[in-house]
Amino acid sequence: MSNVSKAGGDDYNNATTRNTFASSVESLAQISDAAAAGSPDSEAENLSIYRLEPIAAPDDPRWKNSPGHGIVTVAARTSGDARIVAASRELDFMEVDAAPAEDVTTFNASAFRDDKLYTVIEVERGRTDIARGVIEGEISVDTIRPVQPD
């Protein structure tokens, strides 16, 4: 089923619009930023430091699906990227004998990705002397339990 509509006129309808891909101001800025960041001549990346803190009550049922790790500090591009950086340190199901519930990875099931479990607080902005990654805090790798005991 097409989402094309034609109202009046005898001209031919070729099911196209005048819209073009990646021509919005936001898209052009993202493309430009990506090209600059990927360039070998680019300067150090501007990163911010974020602190991820648990905000849900200890008896919140969400903790049963995604165990917490306490307070973690990361260097990342954005607050959303901070969640991704922290979650990337957790063990993924493909590394153990376990299977995900609804996806091909357990990466999306991280407590860091749940805004009801963790909040992200910007601590410092515009640092070029740090690398993207976890700065402080312990991220346990026992978030996934194998289906068969050892």
Neighbour order of strands in the largest sheet: 3-1-2-4
- How far is the first residue's CA from the last residue's CA? 52 Å
- Mean pLDDT equals 75
The tally of strands reads 4
Please give the radius of gyration in angstroms.
22 Å
Categorize the overall geometry: flat
Secondary-structure element string: HEHEHEE
Strand content: 15-25%
Tally of contiguous helical segments: 3
Please describe what this structure looks like:
The protein is an alpha+beta fold and 150 residues long. The protein has helices at residues 25-38, 62-65, 79-88; strands at residues 47-54, 72-76, 118-127, 133-136. The longest helix has 14 residues, at 25-38. The radius of gyration is 22 Å and the shape is flat.
Keyphrases for this structure?
4 strands, 19% helix, 4-stranded antiparallel beta sheet, 150 residues, 3 helices, alpha+beta
Layout: helices, strands, pairs:
Layout: H1 25-38, E1 47-54, H2 62-65, E2 72-76, H3 79-88, E3 118-127, E4 133-136
Give a nutshell description of this structure.
This protein is an alpha+beta fold and 150 residues long.
